[in-house]
Amino acid sequence: MSDHIVDWKQLRDYCKDIFVALHVPPDEAYIIADCLVDADLCGVESHGVSRMAIYTKRLQAGVVNTAMQVKIEREYPAGAAINGCNSMGMVVGKYAMERCIEKAHENASCFITVNNSNHYGMASYFVRMAAEAGMVGFSATNAPPNIAPWGSSKAYFGTNPVAIAVPTSSDPVVLDMASSVVAMGKVILAAKLGKTIPEGWVLTQDGRPTTDPEEGMKGTVLPIGGPKGYGIALFVDVLCGILSGAQFGPYLNNMWNDFVNPQNVGHVFVAIDISKYTDISSFKERMSQMILDIKSLPKKHGITELFVPGEIEERKKRNQKEQGVILPAVLYTELKALGEKFGVAINF
Amino acid sequence: MSDHIVDWKQLRDYCKDIFVALHVPPDEAYIIADCLVDADLCGVESHGVSRMAIYTKRLQAGVVNTAMQVKIEREYPAGAAINGCNSMGMVVGKYAMERCIEKAHENASCFITVNNSNHYGMASYFVRMAAEAGMVGFSATNAPPNIAPWGSSKAYFGTNPVAIAVPTSSDPVVLDMASSVVAMGKVILAAKLGKTIPEGWVLTQDGRPTTDPEEGMKGTVLPIGGPKGYGIALFVDVLCGILSGAQFGPYLNNMWNDFVNPQNVGHVFVAIDISKYTDISSFKERMSQMILDIKSLPKKHGITELFVPGEIEERKKRNQKEQGVILPAVLYTELKALGEKFGVAINF
Predict the structure, then answer these.
(1) Which residues contact B49 (CB under 8 A, 6 or more apart)?
(2) Which of B99, B102, B127, B152 is best to mutate for the A interface (most A CBs within 10 A)?
(3) How far is residue A278's CA from residue A274's CA, in Å, rounded to a whole number?
(4) What is the DSSP letter of A241?
(5) Quick check: helix, strand or coil at residue A63?
(6) Dihedral sign computed on CA atoms, order B127, B131, B135, B136
(7) At what angle do helices A329-342 and A8-21 cross, to 10 degrees?
(8) Chains A and B: how many Cβ contacts under 8 Å?
């Protein structure tokens, strides 16, 4: 079977309609669908519409609330502790970053914690909101265990990603990285597509290297820079899990096989209003200088272009918006079946 | 020549007296000496008293101000933009983190930028101040170029470290890491001690691997996780250099060979008041749980103990406070000569 090329807006509408069929309010269904399709547009397929199956399964099982409920438990000029009340992660994430931007606009910066949430998709979705508002955006989330503390063979921390973005005079510069060499999502996607994975990504349950994604899913993913990546994963969990009052480490419930207990994921959001610290036009000019400098540096043999973080993703997004999103046949079939299940016709 | 074992307080007093002889006000001389000796106590010798020679040389050359001058250029409930006025980095750093803690105490969190500063020593010194105040502390600094953007062979970014700390019911948990596999300070120290360095730390000027620290000092250090470490180094420079209004990338002046132009280094400081987000005793209990869990995990073959970030350093500090700080003979000789130069007698 060959890949399907589909229009991104049609894909987004289709996903949105499926969520609406599951009783998600239309504006919230839009946010979730937009976040998923945005990941596919960026080439981050692991966090894209390949997640429709698990999200709909969880909504249908009632283990996640269909309509957003949030409670601001504590609020300050430069902070808030938000209870996500087991709502969909993307919807709570967008809500929290909007509050964060408002408060940073008033007081220069803001740091917000969220507990009782769920998988919130691609972290860069939220930090780009801050960049669009002329701010530095930062976000991180914890996740069920996939990384072993350095020296151990047993997973304790999630791949706990961090994302940061800043505006420039054109596309934002965006770093969105797991604390591990790869996101477990990429291992899961490889398993779904029946592909092998490179050595150096994962270890088996008993600490051996493997190229089999199924074995990797039962084992651990390697942290970047050894003890450093372990340290990053730990601190993401301290902020997102312990400080927020969510679960942490192995106490987080698994999205893939627990349809009874809410996940109780935690996130943090930071916004820093650039105009409070420096002139925004001078900030953007200096960003342009840095980007130009980098792109003009001598390249290693075999390298044709140097990129700043997020540039490859922005370019893929532009291309796929024009030429259509590439969906592997197996994923297209899965999406089509979901539509049939929930009474939504596929028209692409 | 064998190592010298010296009392840490005598070492600190000696370093302090040398700075005072160079017209640094006594309370500021104490901060700089404390920061340096603290690094040695932690086993981070690259940022310890081995820096006395360059700091005193710069003070004597008049390229750094002897007495702190700072100017709060902009101030908000949750932020400030501080001009370090070319003062010593440690002194400005301590001042900025103190302001940051005060503001976080009022408003939940705070983010402060500093420009026109100098090398500020070990980043963990400042974040531990926040942890002692019951807060999450974060700090980062830029530095002259040592890391090449991914795909290039030419250095553009410093090893740009980030540090974060949180309090626990005993020692704080502290992560202090360069964006590179190793800090350039370790390469410099190896060169000073005439030692070789492991492969995988540095590349030569033309991109070849080497174990010669002198060659590495002219080349680049490798970022952790390849493009990820490059991304971290870039964003540290965006915050510390571009946002703060300090220099960035190759425009930062070099501490080691430029005694005319101020460095114009930038730093950022973050404090998050834990008690504003959750109950501090519950935070500490949950930290204890996490630490206990980690230390009880199965160990890989050959591993005798699992550590949380900063634990090895805290243990070394305790040992060296009791048993004395180990100074290599070459460093002892250098320190003794400095004392002779500035009229301070060595008594250990």
Answers:
(1) B11, B15, B36, B37, B40, B327, B331, B335
(2) B152
(3) 6
(4) I
(5) coil
(6) positive
(7) 40
(8) 232
Closest CA to B115 of B154, B152, B81, B158: B81
Question: Rg of the Cα trace of chain B?
Answer: 20
CA of B258 vs chain A CAs: smallest distance (Å): 22
Using an 8 Å CB-CB cutoff, list chain B residues near A277: 74, 79, 81, 113, 243-245
Residue B165: phi and psi, rounded to 5, are -145, 150
Amino acid present at B242: I
The pLDDT tens digits for B191-245 are 988 999 998 899 888 878 899 999 988 889 999 998 999 999 999 999 999 999 9
User: Region B158-170: what's the mean pLDDT?
Assistant: 97
Q: Are strands A325-327 and A4-6 parallel, antiparallel or unpaired?
A: antiparallel
Of the candidates B111, B136, B249, the beta carbon closest to that of A272 is on: B111
> Phi-psi category of A264—alpha, beta or left, where left has phi over 0 and alpha has psi -120 to 50?
left
C-alpha span between A320 and A316 (Å, rounded)? 6
Token pair 């704080």: residue:
B172
ipTM of the complex: 0.96
**Residue of B106, B110, B286 to mutate for A, most A C-beta atoms under 10 A:** B286
Six token digits for residue A222: 């390697």
Residues 6 or more apart whose CB falls under 8 angstroms from that of A137 comprise: A97, A126, A127, A128, A129, A130, A131, A163, A164, A165, A166, A269, A270, A271
- pTM of the predicted model, to two decimals? 0.96
CA atoms within 13 A on the CB side of B69: 6
Q: Quick: pLDDT tens for A7-39.
A: 999 999 999 999 999 999 999 999 999 999 999
The minimum CA-CA distance between B197 and chain A, rounded to whole Å, is 17
List b or e across B137-146, with b for residues whose CB sees 16 or more CB atoms inside 10 angstroms. bbbbbbbbbb
The Cα A254–Cα A144 span in angstroms is 6
DSSP structure class, residue B243: I
Look at residues A138, A126, A154 and name the one whose alpha carbon lies nearest to residue A47. Answer: A126
What is the least distance, in Å, from the CA of A64 to any CA of chain B?
24
How remote is the C-alpha of A66 from its chain's centroid?
20
Each residue's pLDDT tens digit, B279-312: 999 999 999 999 999 999 999 888 999 999 999 9
